[in-house]
Structures are given as C-alpha cells and as structure tokens.
Amino acid sequence: MARPQTRASLLRASMRTAEIVAPFLLLALLWQIASLYFPRYLFPSLADVFTHTIAIFANWSQFAEVLATVGRILAGLVGAFLIGAMIATAMMRFRAVDRFLAPILNFFQGIPALSWVVFAIIWFHGTEPRIFFIMTLTSLPAFTFQVLDALRGMSNELVEMVMSLRPTRAKMLRAMILPAILPDILTAWKVNLGNASRVVVVAELVGATGGVGYELLQQQQIFDMAGALAWTLQLVFFVLITQRIIAFIEARAFRYRAVSERSL
Amino acid sequence: MTPIAPSSDVEIRFEGVSKWFGGKVGGAGAFRAVDGLSLDIVQGEMVALLGKTGCGKSTTFNLIAGLLEPSAGTVRVQGLDPFRNFNDLRGKIAVVFQNDRLLPWRTAIGNVELGLEMLDRPAAERRDVAQSWLSRLGLAGHEHDYPHALSGGMRQRVSIARAFATDASILLCDEPFSSLDEITGQRLREEFASLVRENRKTAVFITHSINEALQIGHRVIVMTRPARVAYDVRLGADGKAGDGIAIRARIQEVLAA
Question: How close, in Å, is residue B146 to chain A by CA atoms?
Fold first, then answer.
C-alpha cells in the first residue's frame, strides 16, 4: 500500500498532468464537434488528422521532409547563435564596435522575415543557401542582443573575484562566463526556436521545393485541411520536444538555484 | 613607532602612488582616491589598513591585487608590477573580499578548488587540498552544499578556505568580517589571524574598525582621505600594543582630523 506522502505526490502529479491536458482535450472536442457540422475541407475529423499525421511518420520520404525542415531550423539557429555570440563579445569588449553595430542590428530587427525571403531569392541560387541566410538573418539580432545582455548582466563582483585569481582567457570563459550566461542563453534558444519554426515555414513556402512549408503549400492547393494540420503538427512536435530537452538541461544545470517555497 | 624593515624583505611597495578616477589626472571632474601613497610591507607582516569609509582603502587593495593601474607612482609586489605582470603573480596573491563572492553554480568544495584550477593542479590534489581546508574551517560535511544552502558565516569560511587553498604568500582581505554578526565575526577573525600566523603569510587587512585593526594587525596604518599614510604603528608580536590606550587615542585623533 502506498504511503500517504507517495499518494499525495502522485495526486499532485496527476493534477498537474490534468491541468496541462485539459485545455487540449477541450480544443479537440470543439474541433470534433465542428467537424460534424462543417465540410471536411474546413474542419476534418480528428481521426482524419490523426491518420495523416501517422502517415507522415510512417512514410520515410515524407518524414525526410520534416527532418529537412528541422535541420534547416537548427542550422539557422546554430549559425545565428555563433555569429551573434561573436558579435556580442566584440561589442562587449570594444565600445566602438558596440556603437557601430548596435544601430545596424536594431535596423535589421525592423526588417520583416518575408523581406529577407525576397532578398534571399534574389541574391542566392539553391534552396539551402537561401533558407540558411533567411534563418540566420532573422535570428541574428535577437541572439546578439540576448548574449550581449547576458554578458553585461554578469556580476562585477564575481568577475573581479575570478580575475583576482589571474585566470587564462580559456579558464575565465569556463569557470565564470559560460556558467554565468548559460541561463540567458537557454532562454534565448527557447524564444528563438519558436520564432525560427514560424519563419522556416514562410521561407520554405516561398523559396523551397521541399520541407514542411513546401508541403503546406501543396495541401493548400488541394484544399486538404487534414494534411495541412498534420504537417503543422510535425513542427509543433519538434518545438515541444526541443523545449523539453532545453527544460531538462535547465533542470540539470541550474540545480544550484535556491527554491523558494513561496512563489511570486 | 618602529622603523620600517630593510627593503630586502619587502613584499609590497608603494612609491608615490596616486590613483584618479573619472577623467584626466588632475582634470575637472576627476576624483583622486589615492594621493602619493608610499609604504613598504615586509614578509610575514600582518598589516591593518585602517581608515574611514571612502578614504581609498579598497582602491589601495585593488592596486595591490593588480585589478587597477596606478595613475602615478609605482606598485611592486614581490618586485613585480601587479597590473602589468598580472599573470606572473598567479598563485602568489590570494584575496578575501568583503562579501563571500562564491560562485553560486559551484558547491563549497568546487569554490575552494577554483584557485587551484587556475594553477593547473591535478583534480585529485585539488579535491584533497580543498577538502582539507574545508575541514580545518569546520565545514566538513558541507562540501557538496551550494552557497545558497550555507549561512553567511559558513560562506565566508568557504571564501577563506578558497584563499588559503592556493597557498599564496600574500593575503589581501577587504573587511571580510564586516557583514557578519559580532560573535561570528569575532570567532572567524581569531581563526583567520591564527591561520595567517600559522601559515606565515603576509597579510594586508583592510578595515574601518579600530578594534579589528588592533586585534588583527602586527602593524596598523591609518589612512586619510584621499589615501595616504597618516599614522603607521607597529604593535607587539602578540598583537598587543605596548601602550594600547595611547595608540588607540592617537588613531582616533588621526581619524578625526
């Protein structure tokens, strides 16, 4: 027989799960009801959407399109993060670089993703360079400012303490800078991942001959709402899985944080 | 007052050192924190730098640590410029700050190991040394606690262990017990003084408390604002001044001036 403490924690876990699942169940129920009253091309049944979703998983050539999109998102984000981190480091170290680049990055932030798509189509040949360019340029300003803020937000007292031990640059990076900015970097990844999954669809819709965006365009042309939803769900699954991975890393990496029993 | 010891034993030397902040030296809006400071500190001395808040004690401290460059004059630590020869003094100067400054993402033992990591000591040696210092400072059993789980006194003990673990010959302490309650501060002060004596360190101890300066220092240097030596007195080897009352009265007089 389970002990009272175990029972209570099981009950709490069940409640938390119910809280997460309940809104989706309600949404699904409303959709299913709508499917009974509207034509299939507007509101297909949940079973129809489910069948399409499983078909994408089961068919390698279709699932490869999902993987291609995921690869494009990750390549663009990694590219934007690495370039952004380098630019942020230079802006942090040299005031002149900061004064020169900050207005340019602010200007870039104002350019809509769709404009980058058009520029990429004009400037580049081939799908992959175009999409990499779009993904990188749309995420670059955000990553740069987020890394810069993280660097500026480091505790001066802790930096001074580590400096008093006279570290090499590599040791300063490993012992102080990376652990200090990691929380902000993971947050930046979470935010940019969601943005990138939206931008990649636009980029593929217009500038690609494969991937989830391209497949969505095909579904639109044949008015297949179930197919459109099934392809959309692939990206949603990817974002959710990646967010869980980041949450897992956070839980492991930030064990040192004090937990208050009273929340905000 | 005893004369300053011969220069061959000198560990720390200030010669006409000035430090300005906030603009060109002597310029409008510039602020002078240290003004032509000259002093010698010899090997094995425990020197208390005493002065009122804002008199440039911490600037003097940062000049010795090599975290600041003098605007004029020269600072030498073991014959080297601590700012320009920054890396050459690695492992030779250890610092205990006003607050513990523990890295929150490291456990107590991880924080103590930090200085040893900078010296490229093997992992097993780091662990043994850190463990031994934590035990000496009464923190056995707390090695794997994160700073947030330790009390203020325990955290400051970890930071003292971090300073001693590198076996640096010079210890710089910037009012390390001022944020602790009186009883904890007093106990840690006594432990700290005995560790410094036992390990034959040269210690520079910054404080604004006359009691603390007289209790911990072999020598008390009183500084005026901007930092320059106003009174320099050696106490007995046991830390008790020959004429404690007269010295205390003189210090109070200098500080009040």
Answer: 6
